[in-house]
Amino acid sequence: MKLKKKYAPLLFSIGIALGIFLGSMLDYGVSDTSFFGSNTKKEKLNKLIDYIDYEYVDAVDTDSIVDVTVNGILDNLDPHSTYIPPEELREIEENMKGDFVGIGISFYPYKDSVAVIQAIADGPSALAGIRGGDRIVYADGIPLFGKQITDDSLSQILKGRVDTPVELKIKREGTDQLISYRVKRGVVPISSVVANYMLTDQLGYIKINRFAESTYTEFREALLELQSQGATQLALDLRDNPGGYISSAEQIADEFLEKNKLILFTKNKTGKINKTFSRSGGIFEDGEVFILVNENSASASEIVAGALQDNDKGLIVGRRSFGKGLVQREMDLGDGSAVRLTIARYYTPTGRSIQKPYELGNKAYFEEYLERYENGELRSADSIKVADSLKFRTPLGKVVYGGGGIIPDVFVPKNIDYEIEHLNYVLRSGYMGMFIFEELEKNRTYYNMLSHEEFKNEIIVSDTIVEDFISYARLSGINLRAENYKNIYKRYLKATMAQQLFGNNAFEQMVNQDDTIIQKVISISNN
User: Fold this and answer.
1) CB atoms near residue 513 (< 10 Å)
2) What b-and-e string marks burial along 128-162, b requiring 16 or more CB atoms within 10 Å of the CB?
3) What would the pLDDT profile of 256-287 be if each residue is shown by its tens digit?
4) What does pTM read for this prediction?
């Protein structure tokens, strides 16, 4: 499909809505399995559903009626109180737990086989010797070739209990016979810290894409590793991070703050206030920190940014964050589904609520990005609308504002060149992955032998590969233009190669090379 220029803002607002929807559901890991006492209103609803079930002239799926009813009720509350069907809840819980039990591969259903993209480092398959480009032909005697295999059906075959074996038969380029592997299923991490490396001799970089159960542990390990490499400054990248568990955000903020500093407080409908303070022993209390945020940074991301900004710790760099200051709690509905209900508001240490208004309905709420786009806020800090009534001051006298997101200390405009926005959307969407997989397949043995350093130094993406990708995209109805943007294409193509060969850290290092916000942080750091 050809995307017209006028639809670009809408495309990005839809992406924001989906991300914030997922992040908004995960503020609290608390589950309440019980309904409260019965009353006539609930009995009325039950009678109506039973009446339809038994007496309505046509067959009706009453489960779907219940789903519609629940969604209708929640739609009248706030944008972040939501119903989660069983199949979505299972996926979300696994993703937010931070690990799963399996054999540790990423894969494509490719042509008539299951192709390994990458064996996850230190996972069961990697330790057994399985490599990118291998085809899984049989699993426990079940043929996986010559038919359509869905991700779900393959996951059911490959996942299982810890330490249970699965017998795999692999077809590998250059070998005539199938190779047999007996792989023991193990705990495979789903990393939320997707990159950590040194930007300069003293400035480290960590990117977090969500706040899961394992995020704090991952963050602490990454930070200690950077400190061992000489990091006295840190760029913590929370851009496009929709949030997650509050507890993980609190623990991360704690590592930057001295003892007994207020991190946040929550207030429920009765006015009860719960405060969270930092403890002693933060491993980066003496370090300098830059928090990177943008219009897609929400919820737990804003908790970290707000806690540090209000305690005069470091600098917030980027653009105004999303503006979610509501806290949810999960209630199990007994059939594998759940409701996450807003139970409180949270406030930053100076007492500001950063929740943006939602009185105009959910659609307007999630498409507020369009308003920012049109009023020039993404290009200029002067266009950010603030109200003097929502002005607060930090202990050192810095002015901060409530009412809708975290306003950065250092503003960096968004590049709103349509071609670059369109290009970045396509390249970040993962669409390039299959094309790159096929490119690697042309000389898989060679690519699998390269070290990361050899790859960076030896692999050059040619104009021909760029043109081939544009033709490949055109076959799917995606029209891209290469004029004036070839260097961006080349960087993303090589970064996607690196991702499939070496993982997300290698990908982020390459795509970040010309990132304007990161370049701004490096400039401030050097000065």
Assistant:
1) 10
2) bebbbbbbbbbbeeeebeeeebeeeebeebbbbee
3) 999 999 999 999 999 999 999 999 889 999 99
4) 0.87
